[in-house]
Amino acid sequence: xxxxxxxxxxxxxxxxxxxxxxxxxxxxxxxxxxxxxxxxxxxxxxxxxxxxxxxxxxxxxxxxxxxxxxxxxxxxxxxxxxxxxxxxxxxxxxxxxxxxxxxxxxxxxxxxxxxxxxxxxxxxxxxxxxxxxxxxxxxxxxxxxxxxxxxxxxxxxxxxxxxxxxxxxxxxxxxxxxxxxxxxxxxxxxxxxxxxxxxxxxxxxxxxxxxxxxxxxxxxxxxxxxxxxxxxxxxxxxxxxxxxxxxxxxxxxxxxxxxxxxxxxxxxxxxxxxxxxxxxxxxxxxxxxxxxxxxxxxxxxxxxxxxxxxxxxxxxxxx
Length: 319
What we know:
- The chain is built from 12 helices and 6 strands.
- It is an alpha+beta fold.
- The chain has 3 domains: about 70 residues, no CATH class; about 120 residues, S-adenosylmethionine decarboxylase (4-Layer Sandwich); about 100 residues, no CATH class.
- A 6-stranded antiparallel sheet has the order 2-3-4-5-1-6, sandwiched between helices.
- Helix 1 crosses helix 4, helix 6 runs antiparallel to helix 7 and helix 9 packs across helix 10.
- The longest helix has 24 residues.
- About 10% of the residues have low confidence.
- This is Centromere protein N.
């Protein structure tokens, strides 16, 4: 086994917590059960990593085997990465084709290898028809850097792909091209979603929540919330705050259902204003000012802003 591969495996082992060591090694499925039983989990991690390297040398581990170990480690600690979401689309009149996962892998790998001489691409199938892709980038003159790879999670039969943030911004267009061509789509765009919680992003884009909810009488919870408040507080302020809070909770339940709410670390609310010329025209011609059908949408947007802020506050409390 090459020294660079041995060092790669050693560093990967050192990243794994001792409490999860055996789980990761079993999921890797490279070492036999008898080899795993020889490992002493009570020794120092440096010594344990060296023991794993010696076992890998007995089986002549390759770079592909070491890359699979790194993928398993990333799957277990996926929250340590920051994930972006990309959405692909078909061209006009294009129908859905039968998806072949092996053809996807072959096409994806060929596109990257044709563009770059030095690149390492590894795949690992996962649950829910997902395929994890690990890309170690190199250049025409340098070998792939195995310690700064890009990870991609693509769900077959869907137009969505999740990628870990990479410092190599110049390779993003090539990555998008490989995803688009291999999955037989026409174009790809980056969505305004980013988080460390891959499962939450998946739940949002796949709409994995229950939208069924009951319209309840808001007067009951208002009476409950009024207990213990300052008598001198204006009742109109109490009523307004309680009604606003009810709307936030109702829209939250309508959007995300009764399932655990997605974790948000950052939310950006953008306001869209009318053009200055249009505003000036309607100010000079008030009788011609139309009743915009999206007035409710604007009001609902302000409530949505409160929903996002409440989610952020709730996540901070949970932490």
